[in-house]
Amino acid sequence: MSDPARITRALASRGITPDARQREAIDALAALLGSQQRARHAWSSAAFASQGVYCHGLPGRGKSLVVDTVFELASCRKRRLHFHEFLREMNRRLVNAPRSDDRLGDVARQWLDGVELLCFDEFHVHDIADAFLMGRFLDTAIGLGTRIVLTSNYAPDDLLPDPEFHERFLPTIAQIKRCFTVIHFDGARDYRFGGEAAEVPRFFAPLDTSSQHALRDIFTSHERGACIEALTLSAAGRPLAARAAGNALLWADFEPLCVASRSHLDYLDLAEQWQGLIIDNLHTSALQQSHTLQRLIWLIDIFYDRKRALFIASDQPIETALIGLEGAHDLSRTLSRLAEMQSRAYRSALDASGGERAGETEQAEKTEGSS
């Protein structure tokens, strides 16, 4: 069982002294896990005052850090995943599920089987189809008594902000507010900014000979003996032209990655195949197109969540180009994550493994049994 003091000690080992809101979340999460332990033999949603914890606030305020620390300490059958990954899994199961009066509920119950603690990172709802799926899923999970922890940049009332559809999501918002302890991480500091820069730069500008040499050195240092030659790969079943691909690192231009029509499914597939990605020839004028900008945001979100390495060569510094852009969701989170991905503190799978191929332990990382 996790208690607040143990969680605080674990955070202290990472150099974090919790602020007031983080301490509030620690207490709520410890209580949630404590209630879960007490309920092992009396599992029902009516047994507790709170079904879960909903942590929201601006990017970089420590939401994921606190929740991930608690998740690591929890001794139960648990699962933590990014929201994009969840949507992919649910939609795959729905396609193959037999017809029934409540196919979504049936698939949700199957998905939740054996999961006592579920953590969603970067919970958001922008699409009415996702809203319908998520509403039924949460209703099912609450009915089963699954403990749920959500982190989000959005307060519950701000989910599905599209005025055309927002009213249809109000019952789910009310359920979240009724069944979850809602905590607003309102600290002034974004923990991802101000870190010590990485010893070896990861982002390069402008697009000149120096940047090309740097990218080549990065690729060859991780892919010794690999040929640098153009090829066509597959991303979620769609062709992707690449400059080079090794066992751990993929090198591709920005245009086929993000200007071409792609979805978050492509980037999930790439993050599962490679531990790092070199994005070359990023002409920042393309980011004025909302669809292109949204694809880059999806890519960064997914690679950050999977702790993949990211190297970018652009015609001007990528952060400078992103500031002030409009037309896509969650840009502030992207800027926050890019700041961390350039810091010494960001340890990617490429750093940790020394370049060996990822993926074989992916499911084990995401689904853990009782300890």
Question: Can you tell me about this structure?
Answer:
The chain has 371 residues and is α/β, with parallel strands linked by helices. The strands form 3 sheets. Strands 5-1-4-3-2-13 form a 6-stranded mixed sheet. It contains 15 helices and 13 strands. The protein folds into 2 domains: 4-185, Rossmann fold, CATH 3.40.50.300; 203-353, Rossmann fold (3-Layer(aba) Sandwich). Strand 11 (276-282), helix 11 (290-305) and strand 12 (309-314) form a beta-alpha-beta unit. It has helices spanning 4-12, 20-38, 63-73, 83-96, 103-112, 128-144, 170-179, 209-222, 254-259, 264-273, 290-305, 318-322, 331-341, 349-353, 362-366, and strands at residues 52-57, 78-82, 117-121, 147-152, 180-185, 203-204, 231-235, 238-242, 244-245, 249-253, 276-282, 309-314, 367-368. Helix content is 44%, strand content 17%.
Summarize the structure in short.
Helix content is 44%, strand content 17%.
